[in-house]
Amino acid sequence: MNNNPLIFKVASEAWEFDAIHRLNYQTFVEEIPQHDINQEEKLIDKFHEHNAYIVCLQGQDLLGMLSVNDNRPFSLDNKLKNIDEHLPSFRSICEIRLLSIVSKNRHGDVLSGIFEKLFEFVINQGYDLMVISGITKQARLYRHVGFQAFGDLVGAQDVQFQPMYITLDRAIDFKKKLKSLNQNQTIFNYLPGPVSISKNIMAAYSKTPISHRGGDFMNDFSRLQDTLCQRLNTKQAYITTGSGTFANDIIAAQLSKISGKGIVLVSGEFGRRIEDHARRANLDYEVFVVEDGLAFTQDFLKQINNDNGEFRWLWMVHCETSTGVLNDLNSIREWCQQQQVLLCLDAISTIGSCTVDLTDVYLASATSGKGVGSLPGLALIFSSGLVSEVNCLLPRCFDLSDYIYAQGVPYTISSNAVYGLIIALKKDWDAQFSQVEKWSHDFRVKIEKTGLKVLAHENYRAPHITTIVLPEGVSSSKLGQKMLNLGILVSYNSNYLLENNWMQVCFMGDCQQVTEDAIKYLEYAVMSDVVSKK
């Protein structure tokens, strides 16, 4: 009994081709008599030199196969005239033939695995249409996979075949069905949140909670604060239950205690959210805006007149997540120092995703999720010095001086969330940032070769967020759903992305390099109407 696992691959070894010729003989000479008997009991296909073979192996046993050929004329071209007149428009076409499975292995695993490997191969090769001559008694099977019949039957009276085709989008739909049956199917997560989480972090959340007042916990909590401060070059780290939005509300509350006027910089959706925080906190401020997709430059900052010291603070996002623009923190910091303005930063999407130096940043916000790589649920606030003394007019959770007097833990906090964050911070950030920088550059180059536009200019792009501007006729919603069908999670469903017809690929958390499947399908989407707005 062969207990080896099933392997699906493109044939490459001499013994594999020998086995292919033997199975070809068994099927198309002995079982379906289309060729003459020979003593070698091998049948070498007439298109063999042009064929690629998708095979299922178990050890040294060949259990099934099919061939792929893109060299015309096809076998079907010789059986049916003008087949292109029956087909939908395409850019690159191939013919599928010689589907054959050893009789004792004609069960779902072998057949579905061969088709799944076929469609993976097709995507990588850039084909967007496949044709096949399906034996009539198996027509139902082909329809189940997604093939559609066209033209008249071909073949001899005793063995007839139905010409059929399948488009790339229907092939991807079939892959989706297979994924739903396989709970262990890998999904590539390129969302800004929730990000992929490592097993060690998930294990921390499954442990029995401990008291947030215990000595061991308080010691670990203090070391966590120190680690964050060292990583980010800041003096104080506050950790509380909440989201990144909650962290920004805390910053707004601190700014409400400072007399004088402030500046809010807006360059996209998340800058507008900062302005909303400031408005809800009834802060006194002015808004300065640049067009979505642009960064705040030194030349722009020079236009802000603060000669009379009117402005006391400046609040902005480090990375405008909606556009993938990374603002130059050094130039912003330099301007604030020259103008004696307190710099406040929304660093929610940058901390843990790229290098962040919070030196002389008065207040900054982050979260345990996103680039930091743990589950969301902890709000992080950082300061370059001590905040104002207790202010009883603030809600208790907003008063950072309370955290100082209580050694960082004035209120209940989840020990599981804290230990998950501790594990997340064990990752080598420098190595990850370098890797993400390379992945992001390679991805941008490949994307631009497909004809797609990346919104952020190369000079101020965020390495961890790529915002793609889709052509007018391509729907971001439909494309995002099709990518999901491929097992590739991209960001497209936020209102600001849908309104602008943008799509995002993000490298955050326990991330991976973008697959070739994703690149090929994006290219296909641009050149076809499979995800059109029609």
TrEMBL record:
Residues 210-363 form the Aminotransferase class V domain. One of its GO terms (biological process) is glycine biosynthetic process, by transamination of glyoxylate. Pfam families: Aminotran_5 (PF00266). Its cofactor is pyridoxal 5'-phosphate. Keywords: Aminotransferase, Pyridoxal phosphate, Transferase. One of its GO terms (molecular function) is L-serine-pyruvate transaminase activity. InterPro entries: Acyl_CoA_acyltransferase, Aminotrans_V_dom, PyrdxlP-dep_Trfase, PyrdxlP-dep_Trfase_major, PyrdxlP-dep_Trfase_small. This is Aspartate aminotransferase.
